[in-house]
Automatic annotation (TrEMBL):
It is found in: Membrane. It comes from Linum trigynum. This is Zinc transport protein ZntB. Residues 1-31 are annotated as: Disordered. Its main location: membrane. InterPro entries: CorA_cytoplasmic_dom (IPR045861), CorA_TM1_TM2 (IPR045863), MgTranspt_CorA/ZnTranspt_ZntB (IPR002523). Pfam families: CorA. The keyword Endoplasmic reticulum does not apply.
């Protein structure tokens, strides 16, 4: 196994600087096809060889296929950073060419679901087109032959590798380190784990790498890869569900600042967008896995029990899709509750403003009337006979404007009432005329002894 650096998180400036350096290099290969690793510190890679008897060994990164019952697995983990899709293709070209060709690289790195044969090898992928830095963007592609498997994933997939059984934490009897139980932790015999580690283990729906059964055939390895992908999706949904439950508990406390902060941060719209990305990845898996099952069933080296395992994974994706739909409905309901709470807060503020306007509107009318610069305003000592009609004229103009405004509001109601009255009168008149004509025809037929024509 060859792993580059342990750190996967890098800054955007470092990626842009490295991309600028990589574009300045010559992209042509020499005659010896020497591999050009432009970004040694970003991509992680693992290489295993299996003997077919339940044993595995780490090997060099030479992309060679197994001989006889032996088979090899080469796994590449692309970093979760804001890089372009072309950068990922360049990294794969540096690591896989040769022996792979450009069509093989494009089939592994492209977005969207795919399952088919490329240059004689079975290639399938479930790559979502979201931003690589998002935790809800999943990309997994595999190239399967009879003696080798090459996989490419975005970020680290839990339980995808293998490690010695002695390194498994789940096989121990640990004690939990807590700030309230520091005295008891000193007398603990087994390993001591922190509380946040226990919370992380509760979100896992699977075991650790040390508990993985070592595949004996190439079909076991393909099933293992798809199993880790489905488990990764389930872990993400479980974390999102636990986060939603904690948010619901906080909302039940009724904190004004918390609700306002959630509305300002657009917490639930972002969560709903992440759920849509998850649904897209699950939909890709529902499209690809049946085709993988169909094509693998035609291969003699693919075991029947592994075909049944693929069918179980298809059912797991369907159930996971239903669960994500339920979580999306919960998020929508919580967002609707926050929207109604925000509307109530706005209505309260408008109520206070309306109350203030009711208080100050009469006062403003009085001050406006007595503040007019016209003669004849009462109680102001303006006794000039030439100006005594000014106040009365202004009041008359105000009354006329008030009547005009009221008429504008009353005319539609009056027109509607008049139209309805005219319709009722017309209906009564037509009913009386039809009734008289009907009685006249009925009496005439009775006198003639004939039949009434309907």
């Amino acid at each position: 196994m060859e792993i580059s650096r342990d750190n996967e998180s890098i800054t955007n400036s470092e990626v842009e600087e490295i991309d600028r350096e990589s574009t300045n290099n010559d992209i042509q290969q020499n005659e010896n096809h020497v591999p050009r690793v432009r970004l040694p510190g970003l991509v992680r890679k693992k290489a295993y060889i299996f003997d077919g008897y339940g044993n595995y060994y780490n090997k060099e990164w030479d992309l060679a296929e197994g001989i006889g019952q032996e088979f090899c697995w080469y796994h590449i983990e692309l970093p979760r950073s804001n890089q372009k899709l072309t950068s990922s293709a360049q990294w794969l070209i540096d690591l896989l060419c040769p022996p792979l060709k450009l069509q093989d690289i494009l089939s592994l790195v492209s977005n969207g679901p795919f399952c088919g044969y490329v240059d004689g090898a079975l290639v399938f992928r479930v790559n979502s087109p979201g931003p690589p830095s998002s935790n809800f963007t999943f990309r997994l592609a595999a190239r399967v032959t009879e003696n080798s498997v090459i996989t490419v994933s975005l970020g680290h997939i839990p339980r995808v590798g293998f490690s010695p059984t002695s390194q498994s934490l789940l096989s121990e009897i640990p004690s939990v380190e807590s700030p309230y139980r520091r005295g008891r932790n000193r007398t603990a015999v087994g390993p001591v784990i922190k509380e946040h580690v226990l919370e992380f283990l509760l979100t896992m729906n699977h075991s650790e790498e040390a508990d993985n059964p070592v595949p004996k055939t190439i079909s076991n390895l393909v099933v293992h890869i798809l199993d880790t992908h489905v488990d990764h999706l389930q872990d993400t949904v479980t974390k999102l569900e636990m986060e939603l439950e904690s948010v619901e508990l906080d909302l039940d406390k009724g904190s004004f600042a918390l609700k306002k902060q959630m509305l300002d941060d657009r917490r639930f719209p972002k969560m709903h967008l992440n759920l849509q990305r998850l649904l897209q990845v699950i939909a890709h898996g529902e499209q690809v896995l049946p085709r993988v099952k169909e094509k693998c069933s035609l291969r003699g080296w693919f075991a029947c029990e592994d075909i049944n395992a693929l069918e179980e994974y298809i059912g797991s994706l369907r159930r996971l899709k239903e669960n994500v739909g339920f979580i999306a409905n919960r998020v929508t309901a919580i967002q609707a509750g926050l929207d109604s709470w925000q509307a109530e807060q706005i209505n309260k503020k408008l109520y206070y403003i309306s109350f203030l306007s009711i208080v100050f509107l009469p006062l403003s009318i009085i001050t406006g009337v007595f503040g007019m610069n016209v003669g004849g305003v009462p109680w102001t000592g303006q006794d000039d006979p030439a100006l005594k009609d000014g106040f009365q004229n202004v009041i008359l103009i105000c009354l006329m404007m008030l009547l005009l405004v009221l008429l504008c509001f009353l005319l539609p109601w009056a027109y509607t009432s008049l139209a309805s009255w005219r319709r009722r009168v017309a209906m009564r008149r037509s009913w009386s005329i039809n009734r008289k004509s009907f009685l006249r025809r009925t009496i005439g037929m009775n006198h003639r002894g004939g039949y009434l024509r309907l």
